[in-house]
Amino acid sequence: MILKYLIEKEFKQFLRNSFMPRIALVFPTIIILVFPWVATMDVSNINVSVVDRDVSTMSRRLSDKIAGSSYFNLTEYTDNYKQALDDVEKGKSDIIVEIPQHFERDLTTIQHATVQISSNGVNALKGSIGSGYLQNITADFNADLATKQGVTVSTPFSVNIQDRYNPTLNFKLFMIPALMTMIIIMLCGLLPALNIVSEKEIGTIEQINVTPVNKAAFILSKLIPYWLMGFIILTICFILAALVYGYTPKGSFLTIYAIAILFVLVMSGIGLIISNYAATMQQSLFMMFFFMMIFMLMSGLFTDVRSMPDWAQNIAFFNPPRYFIDTMRSVFLKGGNIADNIHNFMMLSVFAFVTNIWAMLSYRKQV
Amino acid sequence: MKTLLSLIIKEFKLIFRDKWTIMILIGMPIVEIALFGFAITTEIRNINFAVLAPQHNETVRQLVERIDANTYFTFVGYLDQTKDIDKAFRKEKADVVLTFKSNVGKQEASSKGVQLQIVTDASNPNTAKTESMYLMGILKDYFSKTDIGAAGVTSSVRILYNPQLKSTYNFVPGIMGLLLLLICAMMTSIAIVREKEVGTMELLLVSPTRPIFVILAKMAPYLTLSIINYITILVLSVFVLQIPIVGSLFWLSVISIIYVFLALAIGLFISTVMSTQVSAMIVSMATLLFPTILLSGMIYPLENAPVILQYVSCIFPGRWYISAVRKIMIEGLPLHYVLTEINVLIIMSVIMITLSLKKFKHRLE
User: Fold this and answer.
1) A203, B124, B189, B258: which has the fewest Cβ within 10 Å?
2) Which residues from A are below 8 Å from B89, CB to CB?
3) B-interface mutation test, from A38, A294, A299, A317, most B Cβ less than 10 A away
């Protein structure tokens, strides 16, 4: 079994450089410990400046209602719009609510008044969610007014909201499975991309080329160590998530490991293909870096694939991490099983097959 | 001076000989800014909603029609029983389910009114939040439609700086910061370490040129490339992504050049500390790529992070650059709003250059 010796060689090469095993441990630890705290797009603390030009009971009541809402922090209550705008420019405030002069008088006489909401659109998400909430608050304010005046709203109704799978809307629960994916992309994609090309650069590839080792055995000997590494890293991530955040998947580990087998194969396969084509490590690094950015930024890891324009979604269709992240989130949060994610399994199988066959074919024994 | 010039020419030749690398270095920012400028967006659209109602009477049908007419929502069908909600979520057929409790017709007549429940798939908290917010708005609108006669406040919404609420406005400064930093720092560090690894660095160092010249010559092609990158990124964001440069182009360029310089200095420093290309790359990734994506406000607003991490973020240059670009390019604020950012970037550059020169000399002895 020549494969056995080749694999043994790979392990020796990996462990000889003390830097690599350490990175494989430290890297996941830091990412799991630090990044969930940062990677939150929580929009619950929206800072509001109220510009009250009326200063009446009504205007106070409206601004109290805004301040009392759990979504907003009232950072400024002023009668000067310029000052409020200054706050927005300095980043102290996100939204300005302007209550016009004669607000109370207009409401009682002509039954109508308009409030101006100006939100900082640079952070589009905050801008749109913030102004949406504010509009809901004014609707509530109207309903209060109506009841106070004795006018019954024609159809009373009550709504309760149930946020399933993540009732506290905790962003960490959403991000941790994705961050684990990021670690796998980094380690199981990048390191193989450097592997063969580094043998080319050092010159040891010549020695392999003159032996009767066939292509398949050679590529397999390169793949299997990364495969094992992927499993170990993933397991470290699970242990950390359970210890630090008390977060364990709702579904079964079996589903996760099953999809991980495919995903690690795909990533290492892509790495090896690049490694085969590149002449120097520098080329291979730049190329892999280019793909990594696409893997990370267009896979739904940070922003939802469904928010992308259609053409970008078509590109994302060929983005393997997307299917892995989908499954990870489904298993962790919703308790999804293989049947629920069958589409993802199929896509990744196809990718795994294509990339690894390609990796085998593109490895040439001649220089 | 002449030696420096010939060294610089040598470095340029060295880089331009490698067609692949050049193509990647110039092409990568173009492809990435175009891709990400459009693709990284948090805009929530195409929300699939399903309805669970014991009876499909007039109210239910009207409401479904009303919600379906909204640009954000698409009606995917009625569910038969509560169990189906879970199934629909897991198969990703629906994102939100509106459920009507028992008999809607009778409820309307009763004093308690219509009782509804919005069930969201909250695996993505923000989507869930937006979904229920929009739905609430539609419901409120629907049920209070008939109460003419009551006093009312209407609100008109105006969006400052980014009237169409395009996410690109938020992300392009971030992508600029990320690409410039990575291309300059990572590429420089790897290029220099490569010479060490291959052994050609020794040759350069034993030659009668001064070490500072060697360093400067190494930086020159990358500085040029970075400036080309800066220009292409800017041109693309203005003409392809249609983000106007509201503020001063001059100051934007000044800040960018300081930033590029800092990035080169960081690359230099990494190269003096690391000895192999792989380790140099991993260190650049770990100290530059991830902190810039996650700790500089590129995608995730910094104010959401715990205070300690907000302090930690101060040591990453991307944070300052991105904030400065946002202020000048998008918000069009005058220079004095970004003085802190500029100063921090300058101080960082000075520190990095001093450190790496010191390290570099030390290595020679």
Assistant:
1) A203
2) 164-165, 334
3) A38
